[in-house]
Amino acid sequence: YEPFGSMSYNGLQTRLKKRIGSSIIGLSYTFSKVINTTNGDNGDGTLFRAYPMSYTLDRALAGFDRPHTLQVYYVYQFPFGKGHSWLNHGWLAEVLGGFQTSGSLSRYSGIPFTISGPNSSLNAAGQSQTADQVLQNVQIYGGHDAQDPYFNVLAFAPVTTARLGTTGRDLLRGPGVFAMNQNVSRIFTIKERFKLQIMGEAFNLTNTPLFANPGASWAAPTLNADGTVKSYNNFGVITAIA
Asked: Is the pTM of this model over 0.90?
């Protein structure tokens, strides 16, 4: 890229599938890491740091890096009714036969984000500014509303002199994703040639929200008279759904 950059991907990809009669259950899991050197994750971006002395800050996690990705799926036909092991004749076969349930579960890591800072003091055209990291460890609190920060905002401070911030790109990672879909259906056989399927589906069965990354542009919090935080001014807090 550009021609200074590169991209690398390393991953462990696994898959397991098991058939149980006419039913099936499977899962896939990927453990991976993606590193690149440009802001544009499609290979069409610019260098994060164009200043030659700061090229090392370009190399970081890609914006789409997700270390853990798990997918589970299944289709289960209940063993009742004609052609199955149990209750395969008589009126019970007609009442209980033809039922099937299927679903999927997705669980994967969040994506990285960069802590940016005001660039009024930078005095360097074409450069974007980042904040200074003033605490060695950045605690992840996991808050997901405007009054509860996702991470410790006090771990960062603005740069007030004409220099680049000490943090690189994609320093922290946002919230992960959990989603579960489920359906139940019944198939009615009509004169052997035709079949009618009635299905009920539930998307995001657990009603788990998918949160966007927190605000990552440094801003000083607004305080109340007693010193408590009145507003984080969108820095470090989650205000949107992905």
From this structure: no
